[in-house]
Amino acid sequence: xxxxxxxxxxxxxxxxxxxxxxxxxxxxxxxxxxxxxxxxxxxxxxxxxxxxxxxxxxxxxxxxxxxxxxxxxxxxxxxxxxxxxxxxxxxxxxxxxxxxxxxxxxxxxxxxxxxxxx
Length: 118
What we know:
Blueprint: H1 6-18, H2 23-29, H3 37-49, E1 53-59, E2 62-67, H4 71-87, H5 91-101, H6 106-117
Antiparallel strand pairs: 1-2
């Protein structure tokens, strides 16, 4: 699965949070200054080309777009890709790096173990 740019991820987050949207609806939900319609349409077309978004045609010039993959599917695919590329496929190395570099507490590790066991 393609790693998303920041703008693409913002569009996907909007669809994951609010569901089906037209381009104009997406523009209204996006943070910051209003983006140009054609700019967002280009991002949406690119996301659709990569299988991240699907559309429903309501009329010849009006489409509703929705996420074709869930947020969890995207996160899992990106994590798997990162583990393969950066840690030689070793999830133990990946988790060990997270624990060392992000000061994961003993209580958090215990909670993680409970989640895995339960």
